[in-house]
Automatic annotation (TrEMBL):
<comment type="function">
    <text>Key enzyme of fatty acid beta-oxidation. Able to isomerize both 3-cis (3Z) and 3-trans (3E) double bonds into the 2-trans (2E) form in a range of enoyl-CoA species, with a preference for (3Z)-enoyl-CoAs over (3E)-enoyl-CoAs. The catalytic efficiency of this enzyme is not affected by the fatty acyl chain length.</text>
</comment>
<dbReference type="Pfam" id="PF00378">
    <property type="entry name" value="ECH_1"/>
</dbReference>
<dbReference type="GO" id="GO:0006635">
    <property type="term" value="P:fatty acid beta-oxidation"/>
</dbReference>
<keyword id="KW-0443">Lipid metabolism</keyword>
<keyword id="KW-0496">Mitochondrion</keyword>
<comment type="similarity">
    <text>Belongs to the enoyl-CoA hydratase/isomerase family.</text>
</comment>
<keyword id="KW-0007">Acetylation</keyword>
<dbReference type="GO" id="GO:0004165">
    <property type="term" value="F:delta(3)-delta(2)-enoyl-CoA isomerase activity"/>
</dbReference>
<keyword id="KW-0276">Fatty acid metabolism</keyword>
<protein>
    <recommendedName>
        <fullName>Enoyl-CoA delta isomerase 1, mitochondrial</fullName>
        <ecNumber>5.3.3.8</ecNumber>
    </recommendedName>
</protein>
<dbReference type="GO" id="GO:0005759">
    <property type="term" value="C:mitochondrial matrix"/>
</dbReference>
<comment type="pathway">
    <text>Lipid metabolism; fatty acid beta-oxidation.</text>
</comment>
<keyword id="KW-0413">Isomerase</keyword>
<dbReference type="InterPro" id="IPR001753">
    <property type="entry name" value="Enoyl-CoA_hydra/iso"/>
</dbReference>
<comment type="subunit">
    <text>Homotrimer.</text>
</comment>
<keyword id="KW-0809">Transit peptide</keyword>
<dbReference type="InterPro" id="IPR029045">
    <property type="entry name" value="ClpP/crotonase-like_dom_sf"/>
</dbReference>
Amino acid sequence: VSKIFSAGLDITEMSGKSNEHYAAFWRAVQEMWLKLYGSNMVTIAAINGSSPAGGCLMALCCDYRIMADNPKFAIGLNETQLGIVAPFWFKDTMINTIGNRATELSLQLGQMYPAPEALKFGLVDKLVPEDKVQSAAAAAMSQWLSVPDHARQLTKSMMRKPAIDRLVKQREADINNFVSFISKDSIQKSLQIYMDRLKQKK
Ligand SMILES: CC/C=C\CCC/C=C/C(=O)SCCNC(=O)CCNC(=O)[C@H](O)C(C)(C)COP(=O)(O)OP(=O)(O)OC[C@H]1O[C@@H](n2cnc3c(N)ncnc32)[C@H](O)[C@@H]1OP(=O)(O)O
């Protein structure tokens, strides 16, 4: 039985809908990223299964990532495999985690990394046995919470603010770009083919 941390964004929200729907959907996705990446709280991802695309993004937004040590579980920004493109703020989040070259390889190929490779690439920080993911995350949380809060928060903001400001400045343009991209016939066709493939896999 496959286990999933997050299947990413709901593809059905990006297929066969109106432009108004796509715009509202994308604004909500932006909001999720701004809240999670910009949070001053400690955030630890307890990754207990596979985590493609938007799922990987959510994990990358956290301060620390612990993943179940199972090579069947994979994580990555696989957008190109769906015929779509990770937007600049997905890319920035990944660069801030694993660096420029690894991000370029990862994004162009739409790579999903099995857990051991994800650790090697720095996409996750630690692997633990599947039944220890929650307890390891709780232990990591205690360690992070032991740092004086104001100092940790200012440091986090210093590291992340440039990426956050970039999206805040370009929110409307980013929404317009998403709507015009996702509503193209060729992109709708790619998403349909991907969904059909998922169903055939069964
Ligand atoms: C300019 C910018 C433009 C665009 C930017 C857009 C950024 C997009 C970000 C995203 O997150 S796109 C979504 C990426 N997600 C994926 O690629 C995941 C695809 N799914 C899988 O790989 C697998 O389904 C799985 C998550 C590993 C689970 O596998 P399992 O074998 O357990 O289940 P199954 O494949 O049978 O799926 C069950 C059921 O769920 C449907 N499904 C799966 N993922 C999605 C999804 N992301 N959105 C909508 N629906 C999804 C799948 O089709 C099955 O449906 P069915 O039961 O009706 O057949």
